[in-house]
Amino acid sequence: MLQLPFVRLLGSVQGLTSLQHLVAPSASKGLSGELAVHPVNFQAWLEAADSLAADCAAVGLPVIRQFASLIADDLRTATMSAAGDSVVSGHHLQQLDAHLRGFAQVIRIETEAKKALLLSTEHAALYEATEPHFGPEVANKFALAGEDIEEAAKCLALGRSTAVVFHLMRAMEGALQVLAAKLAIAN
Hints:
This protein is mainly α and 187 residues long. The protein is 68% helix and 5% strand. It has 8 helices and 3 strands, in the order αβααββααααα. It has helices at 6-27, 39-59, 62-75, 90-111, 121-127, 135-141, 146-157, 161-182, and strands at residues 34-37, 79-80, 86-89. A 3-stranded antiparallel sheet has the order 1-3-2. A hairpin with a 5-residue loop joins strand 2 and strand 3. The longest helix has 22 residues, at 6-27.
């Protein structure tokens, strides 16, 4: 299962959206347009584009990934002004504007086909436990049941109650076999 930091993904999209609002007025001036950006902001936008491209590749959003990569490439064409700002101008600014406008449209279209599940903090703790669910003593004594106990917790986190029962019954098999052996009951 793929897990992405939701805040990072939203932050990248938000960063590129804010960049679009700065680029559009400058790009409307045609090839004479110029956008000068403080290096800190510029670096943040470049990192947002690169991060978004990587995240989109991981979740199977190839068109958004391509646009994010194109935006990052456009930003890399910037030159340094005498004041130390990063400057995108002329044809590169026009290209950046076109890619940002395309990005805004594509993100709506491509994400409509995807579904994502968000877990509450409590459910996320069940899904990704840091300690054995029934404690270390059970984990040590019934090591073979560990995977089914873990799967039962994940199913509980996802609201799949029938699957929870299935995995817990499988986990109980080992315990019952140990009990049967102690009581000298044959299989």
